[in-house]
Amino acid sequence: MQQPSVLLVEDDAHQRRAAETFLLDHDLSVIAVENGAQMRRQVSRAMPDLVLLEVELPGQEDGFALTRWLRESNTKVGIIMLTASNDPGSTVRGLDSGADDYVAKPYEPRELIARCKSVLRRSANKSMPPRLERIRMGRHVLDLPGCRLIDPDGGDVALTSAEFDMLKLFAENPNRALSRDWLLETTSHRNRDPFDRAIDLRVTRLRRKIEPMPDKPTVIRTVRGIGYMFVPPAE
Question: In whole angstroms, how far apart are CA 131 and each of 98, 127, 128?
């Protein structure tokens, strides 16, 4: 079973190393960074399962602003805020920003692990949709067992195998921002080239096939700084 991935954002080098070591000792895959800019770069490569985010970060963005950005980018990622403040108002503000939990420093390491596992369980439950065979994509329907895309009139839309694989990934991850890197590696089974535009070109072709207005997409939306998100139609 794949280890849950944790992104630790902590500007204090000593606390960052200590927390990283403890998390690794409890079967979590950890990447540790020291500021919001590094966090954004890492998220653009791959969205983690859980983010541990220090509130009082240096720079223009504090933990509250970064939490709002994370939550707008992805509704399912787990977020736990870390702070040395004892102000109850900070806790409320953090939760209002979109955090799942709030841990005050200095924390007992075993408590942090328990909070991490609790949030990961809740996030996993949110991420487990029922088994689907047909998924509405705008006015089209993706038939997973039949490996085909059906237009509003019931006809088949021509798809390459790569295009079907990408639509399947979107269908399995609704309302979740998927990074270009992850899409490229998952659908092409190769590492990212910084100048590779294969994903953008594939999305452009898919939009021409499923979007009512490809230049104003509503089904496969662009998530700035990350990649793309499939938005199911409202029932």
Answer: 28, 12, 9
